[in-house]
């Protein structure tokens, strides 16, 4: 076997640098008093705009066309909303040895958020996986997560979730689901505009998330929440997250093999089923946790950067793997069972 070479550079996402800078800004200059009320209102509006744009972008027809890969999508959804939460619940035994209770709540919330879209597609493409399936899987996960994530949070976090309550469910409906559905309804008229100005609107997306982060961490600083986190606890959190990511990467790869998926679909399942969305998780945390969102999103921010670095190495390794032998007419001798029926590799 060829040795796994270290890539020329590890992908330090520039946006993570901006997020960390925003956290630093909130730590030094938190919004207080009237300014805090203004930022809170702006953050609420930004979250609604963010999910309105999500709804306007998602093509309902493309999502329905992807249903033919239902076995793959069910597998990814099971990894995202079943296996991940089970592992999150198992981590409860690490309190208080490695994790404080607030950090554990953030870790558990991390396991409940949807999968990524953009990075899953990018890594699937690099590794020569099933890119169309990755697009559909990410879209389905995001769509399902708008409903499933707050419901799972209600069940698993309950009243101990840093202020989570029935009002939070109402908030998630009004701030996330209603704008998303409005975007879907209006997509017929604004979809072309959204597509043409995708790059500019992408800055709106990221700016909205930065505003949410600043508001959440400002509230945390004013309440002295950072005194609850020590470098030792942060180190313990990183270790736990590294183990969590490793377990999910192994389960998605070898589990997909046991289910007799082909190579391309296994790659899609591994990248879409082992990752969590920072873009979706941060706004949801702002709605669900309010003033306690700062510690709730910290594990997600750390996990996001970790998954980018590890998956980049894996994607480059998969890209060097020999492809299955080609059959007559250039078709693969190892078709995906999703399209061709179960067949062992």
Structure overview:
With 345 residues, this protein is mainly alpha-helical. Helix content is 72%, strand content 0%. The protein has helices at 14-28, 33-57, 60-65, 70-90, 101-110, 118-126, 131-156, 166-196, 198-222, 231-258, 263-273, 278-289, 293-319, 337-340. Helix 2 (33-57) packs across helix 8 (166-196) and helix 6 (118-126) runs parallel beside helix 13. It is globular, with a radius of gyration of 20 Å.
Question: Secondary structure elements and their pairing?
Answer:
Layout: H1 14-28, H2 33-57, H3 60-65, H4 70-90, H5 101-110, H6 118-126, H7 131-156, H8 166-196, H9 198-222, H10 231-258, H11 263-273, H12 278-289, H13 293-319, H14 337-340
Helix pairs in contact: 1-9, 2-8, 2-9, 4-7, 4-10, 4-11, 5-13, 6-7, 6-11, 6-13, 7-8, 7-11, 8-12, 9-12, 10-11, 10-13, 12-13
Short description:
The protein is mainly alpha-helical and 345 residues long. The protein has 14 helices and no strands. It is globular and about 60 Å long.
Give the tags.
14 helices; disordered C terminus; 345 residues
Estimated helix fraction: over 70%
Largest sheet: none
Fraction in beta strands:
under 5%
Helix segment count? 14
| Terminal CA distance | 19 Å
How would you spell out the order of helices and strands?
Answer: HHHHHHHHHHHHHH
The pLDDT mean sits at 80
Content-based structural category: mainly alpha
Low-pLDDT regions: 1-8, 159-163, 326-345
What's the multimeric state? single chain
Radius of gyration: 20 Å
Number of E-state strands: 0
Query: What would the principal axes of the Cα set say about the shape?
Result: globular
């Amino acid at each position: 076997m060829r040795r796994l070479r270290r890539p020329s550079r590890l992908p330090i996402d520039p946006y993570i640098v901006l997020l960390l800078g925003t956290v630093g800004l909130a730590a030094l200059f938190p919004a207080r008093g009237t300014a805090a009320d203004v930022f809170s209102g702006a953050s609420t509006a930004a979250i609604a705009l963010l999910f309105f744009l999500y709804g306007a972008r998602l093509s309902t027809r493309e999502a329905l066309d992807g249903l033919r890969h239902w076995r793959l999508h069910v597998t990814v959804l099971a990894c995202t909303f079943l296996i991940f939460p089970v592992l999150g619940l198992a981590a409860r035994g690490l309190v208080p040895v490695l994790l404080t209770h607030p950090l554990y709540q953030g870790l558990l919330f991390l396991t409940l958020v949807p999968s990524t879209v953009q990075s899953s597609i990018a890594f699937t493409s690099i590794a020569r996986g099933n890119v169309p399936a990755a697009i559909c899987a990410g879209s389905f996960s995001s769509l399902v997560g708008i409903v499933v994530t707050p419901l799972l949070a209600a069940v698993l976090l309950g009243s101990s979730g840093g202020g989570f309550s029935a009002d939070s469910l109402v908030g998630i409906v009004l701030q996330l689901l209603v704008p998303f559905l409005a975007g879907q309804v209006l997509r017929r008229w604004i979809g072309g505009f959204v597509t043409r100005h995708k790059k500019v609107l992408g800055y709106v997306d990221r700016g909205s998330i930065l505003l949410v982060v600043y508001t959440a961490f400002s509230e945390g600083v004013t309440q002295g929440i950072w005194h609850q986190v020590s470098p030792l606890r942060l180190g313990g959190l990183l270790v736990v997250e590294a183990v969590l990511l490793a377990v999910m990467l192994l389960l998605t790869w070898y589990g997909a093999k046991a289910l007799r998926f082909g190579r391309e679909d296994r790659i899609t399942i591994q990248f879409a089923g082992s990752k969590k969305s920072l873009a979706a998780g941060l706004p949801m945390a702002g709605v669900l946790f309010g003033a306690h969102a700062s510690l709730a999103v910290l594990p997600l921010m750390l996990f996001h950067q970790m998954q980018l670095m590890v998956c980049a190495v894996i994607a480059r390794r998969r890209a060097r793997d020999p492809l299955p032998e080609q059959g007559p007419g250039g078709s693969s001798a190892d078709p995906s069972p999703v399209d061709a029926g179960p067949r062992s590799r």
